[in-house]
Design goal:
By secondary structure, the chain is an alpha/beta fold. Helices cover 26% and strands 32% of the residues. The protein binds S-adenosylmethionine (SAM).
């Protein structure tokens, strides 16, 4: 029995995950993320043999940190490209301050308009956004790969994996909702249904931990940066059957990703999913590892679902970018409960400003 029409239009208005590029906070938050910085640094140092004396393209260089790491790893030339004019002028100063102007060429503008007369050996980028695909930067990595990467060239990170698991977060839910019962001794309870409709309507970026997970995570999509195509990204669909670890009320699904710095294409293709997760060169953003600025993305259901321990939790997930509104990602979850199949639809702005 379907309780909601699966073809109904999502009721959510345009909302985005969180911060946008021009905000200084956006770069500060990234640069403060030690897990992110450390993993990129280790990966670039580890792959130094593929970088030394080579030409690198840093796609969406932001503050230039990845360009500088590549220059320090011995790159002969680094094209540091960013469309944010304010940030690109800062990069030039940062590069100067680090005495690397002879290696790093800072290019202000959209990389789609970039004119370089040579192919590159390495593409480095921090393209991962919320639910892996937020920020819409992977599309740009694919375009750059097809346009400039030499055969046998390296892409860092080389792949990404999106995971999902049902979570319970009842305390957080109550805290947000019950707060309205008494605000400076004023009854604001009419705000409760407003909060329920709005605060949990679009994907929430928040931190949970292992305790919040009710089932084993499942892979939604593994993206190999050497072979993924743009049409493949426009519609991702996966059915799931998760082993329930404990009983409890599910508030929704948590999503997070890993970015893997495997290296050369043949190395990426030889790895099993398990080897990939075990590798030290993985940037993990899940609930059971040290936190990153990506935290987790939580999709709240309209009503909670009771899970029984040992019973599989089944359903399907689809992530679609409509051709009409490429800036949008539609998230559709179908999941089985005691009352039959339930449908939860959300949409979010991928925020790709350029
Ligand atoms: C996630 S940030 C990169 C952060 C950077 N690695 C750092 O650590 O500061 C992505 C960057 O891509 C840039 N960007 C987005 N679309 C672009 C495009 N089409 N061409 C060039 N840069 C783009 C944004 O301005 C933003 O600075």
């Amino acid at each position: 029995m379907l309780q909601q029409d699966p073809n109904a239009e999502p009721q959510i208005t345009r909302q985005c995950f969180r911060r946008r590029y021009p905000e200084t906070d956006f770069y500060e938050e990234k640069n403060r993320d030690k897990v992110r910085n450390h993993t990129y640094k280790s990966a670039i140092e580890y792959h130094a043999d593929n970088i030394r004396n080579k030409v690198v393209l840093d796609l969406g260089c932001g503050t230039g940190i990845l360009s500088i790491l590549c220059a320090k790893a011995g790159a002969r030339k680094v094209y540091a490209v960013d469309a944010g004019t304010d940030i690109a002028s800062q990069v030039a100063n940062i590069v100067d301050a680090n005495g690397l102007s002879h290696v790093i060429i800072v290019v202000r503008g959209r990389f789609e308009d970039l004119e370089i007369n040579e192919d590159v050996d390495v593409i480095v980028s921090e393209w991962m956004g919320q639910m892996l695909l937020g920020e819409d930067m992977l599309l740009r990595v694919i375009t750059a790969r097809d346009r400039w990467l030499k055969p046998g060239g390296v892409i860092l990170p080389s792949s990404g994996t999106l995971f999902m698991a049902p979570f319970t977060n009842f305390e957080r839910y109550c805290e947000k909702v019950e707060f309205w019962l008494d605000v400076a001794e004023i009854d604001m309870s009419p705000m409760i249904s407003f909060t329920e409709q709005n605060a949990f309507a679009s994907p929430n970026v928040d931190r949970i931990n292992d305790e919040n997970l009710l089932a084993d995570p499942q892979v939604v999509k593994h993206v190999n940066c050497y072979s993924i195509t743009i049409p493949e990204l426009m519609s991702i669909g996966e059915s799931f059957s998760m082993k329930t670890l404990k009983q409890g009320r599910v508030n929704g699904f948590a999503f997070w990703f890993n970015a893997e710095f495997t290296g050369l294409r043949q190395e990426e293709e030889q790895l099993s999913a398990l080897d990939r997760m075990d590798s030290a060169l993985v940037l993990c953003t899940g609930p059971s590892v040290p936190p990153t600025h990506w935290e987790q993305t939580l999709i709240y259901f309209p009503t909670t679902v009771q899970l029984e321990r040992g019973r599989p939790f089944t359903g399907s997930v689809t992530l679609t970018q409509p051709t009409k509104h490429k800036w949008l990602m539609e998230i559709k979850l179908i999941y089985r409960s005691n009352n039959g199949d339930l449908v939860c639809k959300k949409q979010t702005d991928l925020f790709s400003p350029f």
